[in-house]
Amino acid sequence: MSQPVTPRRTTRSSAGSASDPASSTPQSKSRPKSTLRRQLIPAAAAAAKEEEEEEEGENDQSTVNVLLEALPGRRAQALDLLRLLAPAPALPLLLYGGAATGKTRALLLALRHIHPRPHRVAYAALRSLPSPRALFASLLSQLSPPSSSSASSRQRVPDKPSDFVAALRDALASLCTQGDAVYLVFDNLEVVRSWDKGTQLIALILRLHDLLRLPQVVLVYVSSATPDAYYSMTGSIEPNHIYFPDYTVDEVRDILMRGHPNPKLYSSFLSVALKPLFRVTRRVDELGAALEPLFRRYCEPLGDSKVVPDESIKRRLFEHIQSHLAVALNETFSVPTRASVDQCNDTGGKASTKRQFGNRDSLTELEFHMSVSAKYLLLSAFLASRNPATLDAALFDSTGGSDNHKRKRKSSQASMNMKDTMVEEMLMKGPGTFPLERLLAIFQCITSVSEDSLDDVESSANMMNGSGMTGLMSDVLLQLSTLCNSNFISKSRSCPLEGSARYRSNIDEDLALKVSTL
Amino acid sequence: MAAASVASQAQAVLRARLCDPGFVHSALRSSPDTNYSKLKYLVASSISEACNNSVLLLGPRGCGKAAVADMVLEDLKKEHSDAISVIRLNGMLHSDDNCATKEIARQLCLEHQLSFSKMASSDDNTEFIIDMLRECGLAHKTILFILEEFDLFAQGKQRLLYSLLDAMQSLTSQAVVIGLSCRLDADQLLEKRVRSRFSHRKLLFVPSSLDDIQRLVEHLLIMAKGSSLPAKYITDYNSRLTNIFSDKKFKGILNSLMDADATTSNILRFLFRAVSYMDMESGFLSMESFLNALSVMQRQPKMDSLQDLSILELYILVCMHRLEDKEQSSYNFTSIMKEYRSIQDAYKTSDKYASTVCFRAFEHLLDRELISFGDIRGRNQALEYRPVKLLISSRELAQSLKLNTTCPAVLQKLFDRERYM
Asked: What are the residue boundaries of the Origin recognition complex subunit 4 C-terminal domain, all occurrences included (chain B) (predicted)?
């Protein structure tokens, strides 16, 4: 069977190589998507030459079945594609749907199975092209005949749309003389809107059918934005739409189950884990990434991953996975650090009972290491951002705390309302900026306080400790630049009056609390 | 086997027809007093009388302006093959004056078998154009300028239009300028000096009425005898088709199509889809194919997107809706989170998730364009603090909550409750 054997969803790479036995690509997850597409597109044209002699009739049915097999849950869309794409001439086509719904994959697979085969497929991956000029160059290079590739590279790439349309018409006219169809595919059309002069370029791309007036050229657009994003003020000829809805729970289960070496075990796992995760996100790629480590945890109590589970085993595994599932629901992705991996290997069950996974209020420790001075700097940045500068005197006076001998006034209703509005304003505005001097002042204040308290606690005058504390003040600017590079503090526009740099802290309260637990 | 090949042949013939604008509008040739006949009369008379003329064809997109202009040109080329030359410009590509003069010069060279140098400057090109106009005028050749997207030429300084129309007035030239535009006020966009040189002839293209559309559909789908397909198939096919056309349901389909968009291009899209859905075993069009095509064309993309959301994303939308109902003029992700946590504390549902997970769902909603940022990206602010707004109406949200089968009841209650507060 040419099914992928790795226990993950059929990514584009694995599916492409599954249905193309001629390719000998290894099943590696790191294969980038662009090479797959480049491999699919010439394969589409090459397959055209090979299978031209095969007869119609039974082949139609089998090719449709092959296509439906490769695209689970996409029966209606696949049939639509096959019927609307071929034979040429055809009106332009727009495929739209959410992310990770299989639009590009379905299109490229369908282009290999339509009958009659396309003579050439030119694919413009708009997400990876930086400018209109690059788009023109990419399309023209794909359409020019391969024999004159050296000559065309010396030709100037057109800058203006008019030159591009003229060059495109020439290239296509030379290709279409035999009467075979040429397909132009524009993928990720929505990114063109954010380009410079993007609206004009979109209008041009969508009207290429009328501008070229070549009946053998079929234009296909793939977009993750809905068609109403492309309506312009002066109207436009609309292409035919095909909508790709998101997968349902059952379809996701089918996709994830494909080619798994132990389907019974995996299906019992999915029946436990899939539905809760599905409430959070419906995208197949995110679900696959979240389910993989969970499945490893699920199989931990089993010594042998090939075993077929019965009811008692299933119940045991379910109890084991329950706590981990609750944690996984609250994470977007987890990078397994070395410490956690070692812990898994050594302690096994003990660590899980010790830690309260179900208790979400417990503060876990910081997952990465920060030096003490960096932690102090980060906290002072957090304080500087969250409190207005006017409070500094009250907070950081020489007694090291709030002034106790000022009597607290009873807060009236008006002041409470004002406090509410201030809190709302804080929510809306976000963290404020502060100059470097203020940051250093607060930092000095905090570290001097901590030095005093530590000296009180430590009875034995440990000289190493003392020198370690005074070392906090050195290299502050170095620490600051490190924190800026890791995006904990960001540099904002410098004040126009003074010209000094202003910074802003990017961390939220949870992280600040974690940092503060030394 | 044979039926399959006949069906695919028939489908290919029909599809080729639908994609060929010449065929689509060819019925206009026979009917009297249409824009086609008026335009043809205008251009033919200006050719025979050796005078200059200009005309604007105006109408919404997809009404057949370019097709009619092409048909007129085709006919005239057949009648006076060497007395006319055609220059085509498009406002989308050639709105820049230098570009336009270069293109005109290039096409003139092509027509008259002269060699065109790409290095020629814009002044050289303009001089060349004026010389060619004069020469053609003396030789009694008419030059036809077709300016598509005419309103885009009228942006900026309108130098091209002015020089063209001025040359037509001052030289011994024979030229006809045909402008096509989808803006009905395209002539109001012209400057005073350009407008004075422009003859105020306008031909208005309107979307067709139901009868016209019915006739167009019959013209496109009924197959004439004598084509390559077997005669029996053609008679069967035609009789089935006429049965469908006389059915009231079909008129209902056409009416609902025309309610949205009555232009020819919309009908062509619909027919193309219906023909693609043709049943390949029998090779006949049925009411099924027309109904399927109609339902596909009448999708509502935002409602479809709303059905694709996960439960957490729906929670976020309902929270945003509640904030809007509480008349908070602007809110951002942190305020939404505050509302979300207050809901979770009040109702103790099982759907309480961490802030990072909620932010990922928030970003998904941004990708789907169901919500968007309320400010232009000027300030260097983190995404959590930028104001957002809903891009769907409350009616759409209410409907999607009802249609969603996996939606928890508490969400529906939260949405409804604010109505009564």
From this structure: 216-400
